[in-house]
Structure formats: structure tokens, C-alpha cells
């Protein structure tokens, strides 16, 4: 049973930090964020001997944690992954799948682990919180990161076709990534309903993320003549247009062709509140 969400500071002493999520998940749901962690962020995994990764709040089934382990191990064979949940029954189900390098434990945002993690995936876990809680939650997690560690905190739809996440390092939020399956959208701004908690209520006129999504839509529509060559070429053209217009677009064609777009946090950060720049 999912408990009523409480504020971050309302927990009892000794209890993991966080609230129980609905726990719904499905195989391959997290493939887009895993592909990003195993791609442009893979260098972080190689900065530590026996690096530790965390799947935080993996839900009622450990399936996506097992998938994350396999994907990250493919680029870092000595990586260890820990799945953390605050619901004991979910932890017990995960522990039935423990193997060398993969384990499941009781825990929450405090990331109480033997050593600092290099990668933390926290997906679909902040949706039940207030936007005002986000800075404290990010701070709690990033205080536990390894020197080159990164948190991928975001949201995706039920089958993983639309996803968006913030890359948070030890200094704070650094990037926003949106990743969409070609053919699943008419306009890039349709990802708005999957924006992370820090941004989902900010997609309104006057906010930076609203401006960014409108610019992406305009660039996508302008690239419509390329649709005959496929949506991949159209997306690449959109990314090039945004970069040429001064948006801080990261990476290059190798990532764009996957339906992925990463920009610097400053261009989408809220204009007011604890997450403003």
C-alpha cells in the first residue's frame, strides 16, 4: 500500500528518508536514461575502482534494477549496483535475485551505503512531493555522491517512450535531458507532462523551460521538410537549429539521433524559488 506523502522532514528517527511510491514499472521502461548513463556519462563510472551505482526506488518489481545493472556493467565490468527501496516487502523480492555485484537493500534518499555512489538513478520517485521539497532532496543525495558522481532524477511514461531527467552532480543541477521515441509525439513539447518535479509546474509563459520547449517545437516544425528522410534526420536538424540559436545544447549527432537532447540547466531553471539561478 502506498502511504500518504509526507514532507521530507517528517520521518521518524532511523527510518529511511522518503515515501513509498506506487511501485508500478515494466521491463525496459528505463532504457533511455540507462543508455545516457552508459553513454556520455560512462566516464564517471571509470573514475573509481569498483564503482557503485544505485537504483533508488525501483518499485514493486526489481526488473529495471536488473536491467540497469546489465547495461552499466557492459561499459564498466567491475561496477556494483545496489537497489534501494523503503518498503521491506519490495526489498525481499529483490534479494531473491541477488548475484555478485547486484544487491537490494532497505534505504532512501539518505543513500546510507558503504561507499559513495558514482551514479544514482532516481526515477518516478519525486512526483508525489511538493516542488519546494526538491532542493532538500537533491541536497541529501548529492552530499553522498563520489567526487565525480551524478544523479539522474526524472520521470518517464509507463512504457518508457517519453522521458525527462535532471543531471545533478555534487555542485547541484547541471543539465536537463529529454528523450523521446520517434513516432510517439507530434511536437517535442509533449514531453512536458513527464518533466521532473522541479520543472513540471513551470511550463508556463515567463518560465525558461516553457521558452525552451516552444523553441524546440518551432525548430521541429521548421525541419518538417526533412520528415521524408525520417524523424531521426528531422530531430538532428532541430538540435542543430537550437544550438545555432544559442541554446546550450550538449553532445552531438551520436546522441541526437537517439531522440535525445541535453541542455545546460541554466537555460531551463525556474525563475523563482529554491531552484532558481
Key words describing this protein structure:
277 residues; alpha/beta; Rossmann fold; 8-stranded mixed β-sheet; 9 helices; disordered N terminus; Methylase; SAM-dependent_MTases_sf
How would you portray this structure in words?
It comes from Zafaria cholistanensis. InterPro entries: SAM-dependent_MTases_sf. This is Methylase. The structure is a single chain. This protein is an alpha/beta fold and 277 residues long. The protein has a single domain, classed as Rossmann fold. Helices cover 27% and strands 18% of the residues. The protein has nine helices and eight strands. It has an eight-stranded mixed sheet. Helix 5 links the parallel strand 4 and strand 5. It is globular, with a radius of gyration of 18 Å. The N terminus is likely disordered.
Amino acid at each position: 500500500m502506498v502511504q500518504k506523502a509526507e514532507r521530507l522532514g517528517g520521518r521518524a528517527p532511523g527510518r529511511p528518508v522518503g515515501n513509498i511510491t506506487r511501485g508500478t514499472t515494466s521491463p525496459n521502461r528505463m532504457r533511455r536514461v540507462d543508455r545516457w548513463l552508459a553513454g556520455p556519462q560512462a566516464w564517471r563510472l571509470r573514475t573509481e575502482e569498483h564503482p557503485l551505482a544505485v537504483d533508488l526506488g525501483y518499485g514493486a518489481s526489481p526488473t529495471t534494477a536488473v536491467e540497469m545493472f546489465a547495461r552499466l556493467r557492459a561499459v564498466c565490468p567491475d561496477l556494483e549496483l545496489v537497489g534501494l527501496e523503503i518498503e521491506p516487502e519490495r526489498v525481499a523480492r529483490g534479494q531473491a535475485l541477488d548475484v555478485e555485484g547486484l544487491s537490494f537493500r532497505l534505504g532512501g534518499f539518505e543513500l546510507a551505503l558503504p561507499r559513495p555512489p558514482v551514479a544514482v538513478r532516481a526515477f518516478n520517485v519525486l512526483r508525489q512531493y511538493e516542488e519546494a521539497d526538491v532542493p532538500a532532496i537533491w541536497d541529501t543525495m548529492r552530499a553522498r555522491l563520489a567526487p565525480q558522481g551524478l544523479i539522474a532524477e526524472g520521470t518517464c511514461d509507463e512504457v518508457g517512450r517519453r522521458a525527462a531527467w535532471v543531471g545533478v552532480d555534487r555542485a547541484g543541477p547541471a543539465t536537463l535531458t529529454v528523450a523521446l521515441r520517434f513516432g510517439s509525439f507530434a511536437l517535442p513539447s509533449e514531453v512536458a507532462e513527464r518533466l521532473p518535479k522541479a520543472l513540471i509546474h513551470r511550463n508556463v509563459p515567463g518560465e525558461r523551460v516553457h521558452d525552451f520547449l516552444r523553441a524546440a517545437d518551432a525548430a521541429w516544425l521548421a525541419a518538417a521538410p526533412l520528415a521524408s528522410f525520417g524523424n531521426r534526420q528531422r530531430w538532428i536538424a532541430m538540435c542543430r537549429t537550437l544550438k545555432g540559436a544559442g541554446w546550450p545544447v550538449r553532445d552531438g549527432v551520436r546522441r541526437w539521433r537517439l531522440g535525445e537532447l541535453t541542455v545546460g540547466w541554466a537555460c531551463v531553471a525556474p525563475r523563482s524559488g529554491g531552484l532558481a539561478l
